[in-house]
Design brief:
By secondary structure, this protein is mostly helical. It folds into 2 domains: about 40 residues, no CATH class; about 190 residues, no CATH class. It has 9 helices and 2 strands. It has a two-stranded antiparallel ribbon with strand order 1-2. A hairpin with a 6-residue loop joins strand 1 and strand 2. Helix 4 packs antiparallel against helix 9, helix 5 crosses helix 6 and helix 7 runs antiparallel to helix 9.
Length: about 250
């Protein structure tokens, strides 16, 4: 059975085996070659070496892509000054001072206790470690949400600061592994209730005699993370103010 196709020029029915139209004379192959755009013109060209991705990431981290009204930018700058003063206070306190000496210790404690419950399926060691681990992970999750979901580099920087502050909070706990003098949630010291999280963790890993050294390292790391986060946040605010000035010209 002979099949037919319709000529794209004169619309006549032509046997599909014919290379050209017997009515208008066009050659089908050449017509299709002329009318079909080259493949290179129809497909998007890939970005060379991921330059666009790197540029987009740096723009996001520097806060350039998130427009902020001038009053909000000024408010952020004033907030950073207060955060800098508070960070100086936290960094200057001794590692053996319980908590942060402020309200933020109690919210941290809520996530700490919740972490113990979350890690129960992973055994006793991870259940005990899960308290401090969750206390550190929650700020990082918040930072990721600010950065990738709301494209808010300033919010992400403050969340990273919170993560550093949590490290200083945990450092106090680690430093007390042998002394067991910290007052725990139940109102008693670790010595009165046969130890606490980091007493168990360091004994289980054979590192209890290094509790002060480990605490100092964690405290120092947390302090530098807080300082770095504030510098990041300040860069974001400066960039946003500069962008606003340029837009107003």
């Amino acid at each position: 059975m002979i099949g037919f196709v319709r000529c794209p020029k004169c619309r006549a029915d032509v046997a599909e085996s014919y290379p050209e139209c017997p009515h208008c004379g066009i050659i089908f192959a050449k017509y299709l070659e002329r009318e079909t755009p080259p493949l290179a013109d129809t497909l998007p060209l890939p970005t060379v070496d991921g330059e666009e991705d790197r540029s987009g990431l740096s723009t996001l981290l520097l806060g350039v892509e998130s427009p902020t009204p001038m009053p909000a930018a000024i408010g952020r700058g004033m907030f950073l000054l207060l955060m800098a003063v508070w960070t100086t206070t936290l960094a200057s306190r001794a590692v053996n001072v319980v908590g942060s000496g402020s309200f933020i210790h109690m919210p941290n404690l809520v996530f700490h206790e919740a972490g113990h419950i979350l890690f129960i399926p992973l055994g006793r060691f991870m259940t005990v470690l899960g308290g401090s681990l969750t206390q550190l992970l929650v700020p990082l999750v918040c930072a990721g949400a600010f950065l990738w979901q709301t494209r808010d580099a300033f919010g992400a920087a403050i969340a990273v600061w919170w993560g550093g502050q949590n490290l200083t909070d945990v450092a106090t706990y680690i430093n007390d592994a042998r002394a067991l003098r910290l007052v725990l949630v139940g109102g008693k010291t670790g010595a009165e209730v046969e130890g606490h999280d980091w007493e168990y963790l360091l004994n289980a890993t054979g590192q209890s005699h290094h509790d002060h050294a480990i605490a100092l390292v964690v405290q120092t790391l947390g302090t530098w993370i807080m300082v770095g986060a504030l510098i990041w946040a300040a860069i974001v605010v400066v960039n946003q103010m500069s962008a606003l000035r340029l837009a107003q010209r």
